[in-house]
Amino acid sequence: MSANRPAAVVVLAAGEGTRMKSKTPKVLHEIAGRSLVGHVVSAARELEPEHLVVVVGHARERVRGHLEEVYPGTRTAVQEEQNGTGHAVRMALEELGAAPEGTVVVVCGDTPLLSGATLRALAETHSGDGNAVTVLTAEVPDATGYGRIVRNPGSGAVTAIVEHKDASPGQLDIREINSGVFAFDGALLSQAIKQLRTDNSQGEEYLTDVLSILREAGHRVGASVAADHREILGINNRVQLAEARALLNQRLLEAAMTAGVTVVDPASTLVDVTVTFEQDAVIHPGTQLLGATHIGEDAEVGPNTRLTDTVVGRGARVDNTVAVSAEIGEGASVGPYAYLRPGARLGVKAKVGTYVEVKNSTLGEGTKVPHLSYVGDATIGEYSNIGAASVFVNYDGVAKHHTTIGSHCRTGSDNMFVAPVTIGDGVYTAAGSVITKDVPAGALAVARGQQRNIEGWVARKRPGSAAAQAAEAASEGSAGES
């Protein structure tokens, strides 16, 4: 088995995380569109281990359900009582059955910044150096509160992990710290884990005690230093959650910009790990790109836009818009102040303008809904224009109904299309019409009352009012001109 493919990866995700002060288990809190444990599992899967086991405990059914939803078939081991990290690993080994033959990587379920590349480097160092245990370490600017890595000056082997409170003055100057992530020889781990004791202040089985057990048995303990110390940061409270989100966001945006995306203001731009871009896309300030959103080549998004699970086609322009599960075609224009709800599909060069809402509707190529309208449960053909202040009346109080408007139609302002109704190709409709019946191709539909002017009504019904005085002055002016 290659060093790049461990025998097993064990993810420790059994803790409650009381410092989060939340009814949600700590490992299920999300950053960048993925749970904390989801980030760790995703990184672990990059190693393609023979086995991947997540140790669950607190709220285990919720954690299991989440894992099954996002990573179907994920294997779990139950730690009924949280009796320490060593005990948790023992539960994982019992779940696996026979002692793993090869490398076993153990990671914490609350380290969302940990990358697959760093885990792979850990496994490679472990195999290449022939270690019994390899500790993932990091050199940090301030090591206060962390366990210090003490090495043999000659061989570089790890001789001890000393907790901050137990460190000597010389050891306090050490900046290399323990991450809590390890690579073990599977067979040796299986033997040593049985020797763990609970005669400590917490009455728990500590995984770090395995290191001293193996070292005393004559085995080598080594270290792999993470390239970026921030990768090992664990999450214990909401402040750290937000800090990790900012760091991950920076990483994601830097990757996008390196690949040819313009991000005008990274400080005000938020993206999820599942967002994808094509070259020469432009992201303006105040934009949030969430879920499985994809931004096409030469498209411009923002400012002040939130897209969730939305596809933006090549060269499209989306400005001050909220969109959820929508498709925006090549060269289309959306906004400002538009709302695309699930099922909104805009064709090539279609337009959805200011204060327009579209839901579960398809707009054909070149079709425009420029102003102040609601389009729901509709199909509109190519190169049609929907007049301002139009409403597709799709709901009768019990069920939704569909409206079909053909190609090259020109509908008037302030139209109501009462579904179900079909408007044929090339139709014109008069402003102010309430369309309740199908309109054949090429017709003009007029559905409004006859206008009637009642002269002198204001003077009779509102005498002395400002309106009456203005009307009287207008009449006198007209009389003087004649």
> How many DSSP E strands?
41
Secondary structure tally, helices = 10
User: Uncertain regions: pLDDT < 50 for 5+ in a row?
Assistant: none
Adjacency order of strands in the biggest sheet: 14-17-20-23-26-29-32-35-38
**For the report, how would you describe the main beta sheet?**
9 strands, parallel
Q: Provide the residue-averaged pLDDT.
A: 95
Q: What is the helix content?
A: 10-25%
Describe the global form: elongated
Radius of gyration: 33 Å
C-alpha termini separation: 105 Å
Portion in strands: 25-35%
Descriptive overview:
The chain is of the alpha/beta class and 482 residues long. Helix content is 22%, strand content 28%. The protein has 10 helices and 41 strands. Strand 2 and strand 3 form a beta hairpin. It starts with 7 loop residues before the first strand and ends with a helix.
Give the gist of this structure.
With 482 residues, the chain is α/β, with parallel strands linked by helices.
